[in-house]
Every structure is written in C-alpha cells, then in structure tokens.
Amino acid sequence: MSTVLLLSTADTDLLAARACGAGYLIGNPTRVDVAEELPRLLAGADLAVVRLLGGKRAWEDGLAALKASGVPAVLLGGEAVPDAELMADSTVPAGVVAEALRYLVEGGPDNLRELSRFL
Fold first, then answer.
1. Cα dist. 29→7, 51, 68, 111, 117 in Å?
2. Which of 103, 105, 52, 73 is nearest to 4 (CA)?
3. Which residue in 72, 42, 66, 41 sits closest to 52, CA to CA?
C-alpha cells in the first residue's frame, strides 16, 4: 500500500487518520516548517493530500514546495464544497480529487481508511 501524507488544517481529519490504522503521515500545514519539516515528510510519501481552510493563499510557500517535490498531490479546500482553484492545482485526475473530498467531508476513521485504500 502507498504511504499517504495528509496535511490538513482540520484537526478532525488528522485525528481520524491517526485512528484509522492506514499508516498516514500527518501534519497541520500551519504547524509544519516548510523549509525543514516538509521535505522530510514528503520524502516518506508516495502521495500528498492537502486540505486547507482559507484556500491556496493560506499556505502558498508549502504548496510551492510540494509542487517542486514532484510528489503527486490532491489539493482541497477545508469546506464541504469544492475549492476550484486548489483542485485545479492538483496533480492527479479531477475524479480522484473529487472523490477524496467526499471521503474527507464524511470524515471519521472508517472513511479515512477507505480514502487511503482508494488513493
């Protein structure tokens, strides 16, 4: 199974990912040092899922570093409705991005475990 890095400003996402047993790497982008910690997290990941309250402008430096890393990325807003700007910057097919949002909106450990399997 692939290793998924989940960076989310929603602590409920991070708690569910930790509890689901899928082996996510996790972090809150507002607390991840882009220069020091993010490269280490990305080095261990096959794919990154980033969910940001406040959209793209909330973590521009981190998104630029993610893009430069070459790690495939699912970029999502923190709301239940799609954030078109973030989704368009994702590097995986649009259908994968939309489905990932559905899993995260539903939330909970079961959905995070299924998201990991889906990805």
1. 6, 9, 16, 21, 23
2. 73
3. 66
Spatial separation of the C-alpha atoms in residues 21 and 27, rounded to whole Å: 16
Residue 59 has what DSSP assignment?
Answer: G
| Confidence (pTM) | 0.95
One-letter amino acid of 53: L
Give the mean pLDDT of 10-22. 96
pLDDT tens string 62-108: 999 999 999 999 999 999 899 999 999 999 999 999 999 999 999 99
Burial tier of 49 (Cβ tally within 10 Å: 0-12, 13-18, 19+): buried
Give the number of other CB atoms < 10 A from CB of residue 3: 13
96: three-class secondary structure by DSSP: helix
